[in-house]
């Protein structure tokens, strides 16, 4: 696979720093575009940036009464930035809105809201899109578009009307960020809103592109599958193809939290800003008569305007460039930093190697077509194990950029790895009806393991209803709380991550070790029952050559025993961390 390229760049972004940042070391995997420093001129106006030192904070409790008019059947949440001691700003100051894709649950949309507010450093409002009013077809011509009386369309109109009716917002602009298939609701609302010329829309990985004479710019990556189904939209002038980040989340189905979209989320609207005359402390509107100068730029340029009369402007620029990566970067690209983390990573790596060794040993009891299929699966599983270790060892910030192309290729193997699991599952089902009962038990146990892995992976992308029910159960029964109402605090980020990852944690950390241990115990009995029914010993390694021990299945029995012990230890460690996490989040609720 060749390294992805940009089809074209966005217009140069004009940026002026306003407030100092807390300097942080810049991670090695952040791709900083080339900066063009230009002196102030009458042709170039400045745009306020989000260069404050932010601490994402979302406070609980009801919002001001002005938001009560938003449609009651649309889930709404506001994420605030600032310190815990900062007062809650009025609704009229929240000038950024996020609408999620329909395949996200409400809890996942809240997690994305936290990310956007952290990246942009400003208050962001969420209007939850549940996908109602549209057909599920991913291709635009086949979709049934929502009507204007849909609750989400009405909520958008109400939010815009409330914002622009405030006297202080007469010369400001409103920003809407959407992901996936949220655009039809936004387009319907834009066609009916008298404020549409002052509304700026940024689409991240859109599956449906907004049509019409609106101020919209879309960002996608070259391998995004669903976004590429609309060929007309992907080739439009207002669509920019971004390069993959070295810390990318995925090649074919990236979420809005993928590091490849970080710069688009942070500054994606700057190419659409038409007003340029407001105070620099406001990210919002500028005079509509101002003309943006056409600065020479390449595909990776940002234009930065520096006020030569301000002696501290350069230092603020350097501090802005030293902004650290968002917290989601560590979730997507985890790497051990402390001794316990290194020990845990080594333990999980050993268990993965042990599972691969068992695949090799299984070849000793196969023959004919089954042996050929076994060797094919061994080759593919070995390839994906190498992929796993390569990504793990290059997750360190200093290594990501150095191996960027190789990491993109490795991430592109995710989809083939799922197809291999499906093939493995079909192969196991093919052999369920074996004449010997113990072999049937082995393949039934193996089918539950491989089938559950395929099922859980599919629910990540297609099982929104199941994910929602699981997350709702965890919220209400395990943690004992509901969805945040009005506003929430930054500490909710950890809780949201626990709730969203609960299904994968229980499956990968508890269910799989138990299932593998059961499979190991059954496989240990194969030589005793099938090869030497008159000998009750589990192992019979004496007085036989290595080849005889291999073909009789005794080597397989020994390997299964060692794997059983290792899985038992992994299960104990996972259970300890799982219980600890549940207790920690429960204590937070009781405070």
TrEMBL record:
<feature type="transmembrane region" description="Helical">
    <location>
        <begin position="498"/>
        <end position="524"/>
    </location>
</feature>
<keyword id="KW-0472">Membrane</keyword>
<keyword id="KW-1133">Transmembrane helix</keyword>
<feature type="transmembrane region" description="Helical">
    <location>
        <begin position="408"/>
        <end position="426"/>
    </location>
</feature>
<feature type="transmembrane region" description="Helical">
    <location>
        <begin position="562"/>
        <end position="583"/>
    </location>
</feature>
<feature type="transmembrane region" description="Helical">
    <location>
        <begin position="375"/>
        <end position="396"/>
    </location>
</feature>
<feature type="transmembrane region" description="Helical">
    <location>
        <begin position="438"/>
        <end position="459"/>
    </location>
</feature>
<dbReference type="InterPro" id="IPR007787">
    <property type="entry name" value="DUF687"/>
</dbReference>
<protein>
    <submittedName>
        <fullName>CT326 similarity</fullName>
    </submittedName>
</protein>
<keyword id="KW-0812">Transmembrane</keyword>
<dbReference type="Pfam" id="PF05095">
    <property type="entry name" value="DUF687"/>
</dbReference>
<feature type="region of interest" description="Disordered">
    <location>
        <begin position="1"/>
        <end position="46"/>
    </location>
</feature>
<feature type="compositionally biased region" description="Polar residues">
    <location>
        <begin position="1"/>
        <end position="12"/>
    </location>
</feature>
């Amino acid at each position: 696979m060749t390294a992805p390229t940009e089809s074209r760049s966005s217009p140069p972004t004009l940026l002026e720093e306003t407030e100092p940042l807390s300097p942080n070391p810049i991670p090695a995997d952040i791709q900083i575009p080339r900066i063009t420093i230009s002196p102030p001129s009458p042709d170039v106006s400045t745009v306020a940036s989000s260069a404050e030192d932010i601490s994402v904070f979302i406070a609980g409790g009801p919002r001001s009464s002005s938001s009560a008019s938003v449609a009651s059947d649309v889930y709404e949440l506001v994420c605030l930035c600032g310190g815990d001691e900062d007062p809650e700003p009025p609704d009229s100051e929240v000038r950024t809105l996020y609408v999620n894709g329909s395949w996200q649950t409400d809890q996942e949309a809240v997690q994305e809201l936290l990310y956007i507010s952290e990246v942009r450093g400003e208050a962001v409002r969420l209007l939850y899109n549940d996908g109602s009013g549209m057909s599920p077809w991913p291709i635009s011509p086949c979709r049934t578009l929502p009507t204007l009386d849909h609750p989400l369309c009405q909520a958008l109109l109400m939010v815009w009307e409330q914002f622009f009716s405030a006297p202080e917002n007469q010369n400001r602009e409103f920003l809407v960020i959407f992901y996936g298939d949220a655009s039809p609701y936004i387009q319907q609302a834009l066609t009916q809103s008298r404020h549409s010329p002052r509304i700026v829309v940024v689409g991240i990985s859109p599956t449906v592109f907004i049509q019409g004479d609106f101020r919209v710019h879309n960002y996608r990556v070259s391998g995004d599958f669903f976004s590429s189904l609309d060929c007309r939209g992907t080739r439009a002038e207002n669509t920019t193809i971004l390069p993959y980040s070295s810390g990318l989340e995925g090649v074919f189905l990236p979420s809005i939290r993928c590091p490849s979209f970080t710069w688009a989320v942070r500054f994606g609207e700057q190419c659409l800003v038409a007003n340029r005359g407001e105070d620099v402390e406001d990210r919002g509107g500028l005079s509509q008569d101002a003309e943006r100068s056409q600065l020479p730029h390449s595909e990776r340029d940002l234009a930065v305007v520096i006020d030569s009369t301000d002696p501290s402007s350069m230092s603020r620029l350097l501090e802005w460039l030293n902004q650290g990566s968002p917290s989601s970067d560590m979730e997507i690209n985890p790497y051990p930093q402390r001794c316990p983390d290194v020990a845990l990573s080594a333990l999980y790596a050993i268990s993965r190697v042990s599972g691969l060794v068992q695949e090799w040993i299984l070849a000793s009891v196969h023959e004919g077509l089954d042996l050929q299929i076994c060797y094919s699966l061994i080759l593919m599983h070995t390839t994906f194990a190498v992929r796993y270790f390569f990504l793990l060892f290059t997750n360190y910030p200093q290594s990501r950029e150095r191996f960027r192309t190789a990491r993109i290729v490795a991430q592109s193997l995710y989809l083939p790895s799922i197809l291999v699991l499906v093939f493995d599952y079909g192969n196991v089902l093919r052999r369920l009806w074996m004449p010997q009962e113990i072999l049937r038990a082995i393949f039934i146990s193996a089918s539950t393991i491989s089938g559950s892995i395929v099922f859980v992976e599919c629910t990540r992308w297609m099982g929104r209803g199941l994910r929602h029910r699981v997350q709702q159960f965890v919220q209400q029964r395990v943690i004992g709380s509901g969805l945040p109402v009005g506003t929430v605090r930054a500490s909710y980020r950890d809780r949201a991550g626990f709730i969203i990852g609960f299904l994968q944690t229980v499956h990968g950390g508890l269910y799989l070790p138990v299932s593998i241990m059961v499979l190991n115990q059954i496989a240990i009995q194969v030589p005793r029952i099938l090869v030497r029914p008159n000998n009750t010993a589990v192992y019979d390694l004496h007085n036989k050559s290595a080849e005889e021990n291999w073909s009789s299945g005794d080597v397989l029995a020994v390997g299964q025993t060692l794997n059983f012990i290792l899985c038992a230890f992994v299960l104990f460690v996972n259970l300890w961390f799982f219980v600890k996490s549940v207790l920690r989040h429960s204590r937070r609720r009781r405070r």
